[in-house]
Amino acid sequence: MSFDEFFVTGDPLILGSQIAIGLTMVGVIVLVTYLKKWKWLWNEWFTTVDHKKIGIMYILAGVLMFFRGGVDGLLMKAQTSRPGLDILDAQHYDEVFTTHGVIMILFMAMPMLIGIMNVVIPLQIGARDVAFPKLNAFSFWVFFAGAMLFNISFVIGGSPDAGWTSYFPLAGKEFTPGVGNNYYAIALQIAGIGTLATGVNFIVTIIKMRAPGMSWMKLPIFVWTTFITSIIIVAAFPILTIALLLMTLDRLFGAHFFTVAAGGDPMLWLNLFWLWGHPEVYIVVLPAFGMFSEVIATFARKNLYGYKSMVYAVAGIAFLSMLVWVHHFYTMGNSAAVNSIFSLTTMMIAIPTGVKIFNWLFTMRKGRIEFSNAMLWSLAFIPCFTIGGVTGVMLAMAAADYQYHNTMFLVAHFHYVLIPGVVFAVFAGLYYWWPKMFGFKLNEKIGKWHFWLFVIGFNLTFMPMFFVGLDGMSRRMYTYAESTGWGPWLGFSAVGSVIMAAGFAALCYNIYWSFRYASRDVGNDPWNGRTLEWSTASPAPHYNFAVVPKVEKLDDFWYKKKKGDTGLKKKDLKPVHMPSNSWTPIFLAAAFGIVGFFLVFEWFTLAIISGILIVIGLIANSFDYDDGYHVSVEELEEEEREWRGDLQ
Amino acid sequence: MNAMKKLSYVLTLLLIPVLLAGCDSKLLVFDPKGPIARSLTDLIVYSIILMLVVVVVVFVLFGYIVWKYRARKNDGDFEPKEEKGNHYLEITWFVIPIIIVIALMIPTTMTIYQVDDVPQGYEEDEPLVINVTSADWKWIFSYPDQDIETVNYVNIPADHPVELKMTSAGTMQSFWVPELAGQKYTMANMQTNLHLLADKPGSFYGRNTNFNGQGYAHMEFEVEAKTKEDFNKWVNDVKNTANDLTEDTYSQILEPGLVGRMTFNGTHLDWIDHAHGGSEQYIDPEKYRIHHGEHTDLNQDIDENREVDPLDQDEQEQNSDSEETDHSHH
User: Fold this and answer.
1) Average pLDDT in the A558-574 region?
2) Which of A177, A256, A343, B96 would you call most buried, defined as having the most Cβ atoms within 10 angstroms of its Cβ?
3) What is the C-alpha radius of gyration for chain A, rounded to an integer number of angstroms?
């Protein structure tokens, strides 16, 4: 393999990125060394098993990937802003929309949500950590290794270029012989292991570790949505695992599962991909629904309307999500009967979703709505998501879909679902739980800039896409003729994307500003919250709760506050058992990353040799007899006094 | 103040569906030129109206609630009452979506079955059969009964049913002529069928909508509906003037790249039908290998191709009047 096949060369944009990446890496290493922070990084972050720190690392990775995926998006918008532009050539554009899709779904939406789940879920159920803290660290690091492996593709070897759906036969060696799509098969597989482990972890955590008295119908709604999401993860991700395995066998070892030659069947890939891919949409949207529910109830100063019907609605959506995958390819020549049945199952999803929308509206009715930033995002979600929802119903109608399929109408629709449904939720969640993570609030004024720029930019970007789609523009076109008349729509859309990017910049500035200047005096319960996470200090202590709370009803903390019953009795304090840090998760993830890299380039000898690292990591992990440590009563007392004042 | 902003924002959003309705006559999907596309458009318009009702109800409720129950400075520390929920209300908004789904499902199913069949009123006509073969990145149309073949354009008789038997020579594509019919995939080793019917003579924009590599954006074709007389005359012209399609020429056409329009005597169905296997002999992965840093400009290829290919030049003259008709309604 020659040098220019290994490093992607010749494109000034990519050369610039290569230099920037190199300089940043050197810069970070020099800075950490200069500040003598290596030890701190290793002890406090790299080896941590604390769910809150792992959550924060997930969120950090998510923000980073949001930036990367956002730049991809801006490049696409720039290229199509006028007919016949030449900013990206066809190949580069194909790589950019592929990585945009993969990164935004798998490396931005997923870690953001899993990050917030990590921080919040144990706190909301009154637990001191997740059920398997070390596995949790492994989940994060292996996800991170997968994400990084995927990201280096654009400077080393070339990015995947068959779309985030990676349809065969295009994604096979017959039509994309380079290493690009190997990255897709291997990096997603590595990251997927982490997600699957997270699903298992949260199912067990929520079943086994709820505070005494917290029966199923007393669970905060976000815990419910996380629980159901975890079940979908465990049900759906193995399908992706198998699909990617077959893809790997096809690409690396010359098998013919999905090829044109030797009796392969590309339709099998489409079915497997969407059997995972559709539930995946609900994996990211359902926790978001939970966050909105928490935020809306808090800032309307009312309990969630129709709590039970909300739970049933989420369960119903989860069940239906496994029965609709064919609606992603109504046009594959299915019989009329098949298309009719899948139209019906798809439209049925609108029923529980409608129930949820009305329950949110009625939660606010007769409430006292406070327009905090977290609430603004939740409010903007309702009208924007409604547009995404009704266009989704339109797409669900198979016959109508013959005219929308693969067009910009579809692209507009899923951005109207995923951005309000996931990104708005992540923003709402960040503003809401930020003080619990860091002990200070994000600035509300800068937050307003963030909000208005992003929401307006979002609508300007994606609304025109409905129209060009109905005018015959298909997705993934890097250029178009002036005679099509699409230019003005797409120009408009490009302007919108810049406004949206400005909104994101405002968020970054907000984080910076608040980190430096925001008041550290926010108390444990800055929003007058309803759930258990607000009963402990901000930021939450590493042991979460000095005494495990006892729960009597839904929104228990809210009623305890009214009774003035939130104090801590000194005699209740007992030593707290906590898990110890571990080096095996990060070591194993690094080993997976190295093996993955060699597999991408099909250097099998090196892959096998470095595979020994994985075996070493697993053995070391198995012989790790560390049973954790105890936090002494004195330490608990001291930490609790710091924010509570005197103990009873 | 914020609530005001919110309200104005909501009002702007409300305007959007109105705009949508106003633009109908211009957008391709709302401009059907045949009975198949027309039944799809009817279904789409019906669903938009129903959905618009949903959107208006949700937006009005949303605007009203957010405005009315906003926190005010002078409301003291008013503490809202807790509400468990209300069975009747919850049943209401459970039942209403069910009714809407039923109202959408019935016409959807009817339309699905309808477009799967020969259009009503044309059952007696013997449909014109055309075999469609998509390749990277061109469309090949074979007329088995007339024994002629065209590339990147297809002529059909107006007011007459056409039956497409579609397949692919490699990657998966999707055949779409929005003014005449909805989409369907083309796949190697597989045959899909699609009905096409144009009311009147005219030129219609067609393209591939399923991403299949570098030339994807340029993978367009033109459907031209002619009167039956004109169509028969064209067939005769082709049979008298066009060159024979040879296996060598056909292999060249299948090489990945863009080509202009072409017309041939004879069809490739004589030696290969991609619906029944054999495509792999035409696929050479090396021709798809990417060399980073080389600026790929497929448009340039197509221009060169036009100059050197004599077959193509004939076609250029023959079709010079219809070259620019794509999307001419704009």
Assistant:
1) 84
2) A343
3) 25
Looking at this protein, which amino acid is placed at residue B182? G
CA angle B323, B329, B330 (to 5 degrees): 105
User: What amino acid is encoded at A64 in this protein?
Assistant: L
Q: How far apart are CA B330 and CA B327, in angstroms?
A: 6
Q: For helices A425-438 and A373-396, what crossing angle results, to 10°?
A: 150
Distance, in angstroms, between B48 CA and closest chain A CA? 8
B310 touches A at CB < 8 Å: no
For residue B93, list chain A residues with Cβ-Cβ distance below 8 A.
Answer: 354-355, 358
- For B88, the 3-state DSSP assignment is helix
Residue B255, chain A, CB below 8 Å: the answer is: no
Q: What does the pLDDT look like over B258-293, one tens digit per residue? A: 999 999 999 999 999 999 988 999 988 888 888 766
Name the average pLDDT for chain B.
83
Strands B181-186 and B262-265: unpaired
Q: Which value does ipTM take for this structure?
A: 0.88
Task: Give the residue ranges of DSSP H helices in A209-265.
Answer: 221-253
Of A517, A522, A371, A529, the residue nearest A443 (C-alpha): A517
pLDDT at position B329: 41
Q: Is the pLDDT of residue B297 over 60?
A: no
Q: Cβ contacts (< 8 Å) between A368 and chain B: which residues? A: 69, 71, 75, 78-80
Which residues 216-245 on chain B approach chain A with CB closer than 8 angstroms? 216-217
Give the model's confidence band at A570: pLDDT under 50 very low, under 70 low, under 90 confident, else very high.
confident
Minimum distance, in Å, between the CA of residue A606 and any CA atom of chain B:
25
Distance from CA of A89 to the nearest CA of B (A): 6
Mean pLDDT (whole number) for B243-260: 91
- Separation CA A151–CA B146 (nearest Å): 53
Are A397 and B43 an interchain contact pair (Cβ–Cβ within 8 Å)? yes
C-alpha closest to that of A122 among A220, A197, A44, A216? A220
Identity of the residue in A169, A178, A336 whose CB atom sits nearest the CB atom of B188: A169
Tally Cβ neighbours within 10 Å of residue A215: 10
Structure tokens at A13: 């944009």
A486-541 tens-digit pLDDT: 889 999 999 999 999 999 999 999 999 999 998 888 888 999 899 999 999 889 99
B154: Cα separation from own chain's centroid: 15
Flag if A365 and B65 touch (Cβ within 8 Å).
Answer: yes
**A172 pLDDT exceeds 50?**
yes
Distance in Å, alpha carbon of A562 to nearest chain B alpha carbon: 12
* C-alpha span between A262 and A265 (Å, rounded): 9
Residue A162 φ then ψ, to 5°: -115, 20
B99: nearest CA partner in chain A:
A351
Each residue of A11-56: pLDDT tens digit?
777 777 778 778 888 888 888 888 888 888 888 899 999 999 999 9
Nearest CA in chain B to A363: B83
Please tell me which of the candidates B23, B212, B293 has its beta carbon nearest to residue A4: B293
Q: Which residue of A90, A406, A472 is in closest CB contact with B298?
A: A90
Kindly tell me the sign of the dihedral angle through the C-alpha atoms of A33, A35, A40, A44. negative
Which amino acid belongs to residue B86? N
Average pLDDT over residues A63-85: 91
In angstroms and rounded to an integer, the radius of gyration of the C-alpha atoms of chain B is 26
Separation between Cα atoms, residue A244 and residue A182, nearest integer Å: 10
Q: Inform me whether the C-beta atom of residue B42 falls under 8 Å from chain A C-beta atoms.
A: no
Distance from CA of B130 to the nearest CA of A (A): 17
Please state the pTM of the whole predicted model.
Answer: 0.91
Higher-confidence residue: A410 or B118?
A410
Both tokens assigned to A491: 């120009």
Whether residue B318 is predicted with pLDDT greater than 50 in this model: the reply is no
Cβ–Cβ below 8 Å for B176 and A382: no
Q: Are A330 and A277 in contact (CB under 8 A)?
A: no
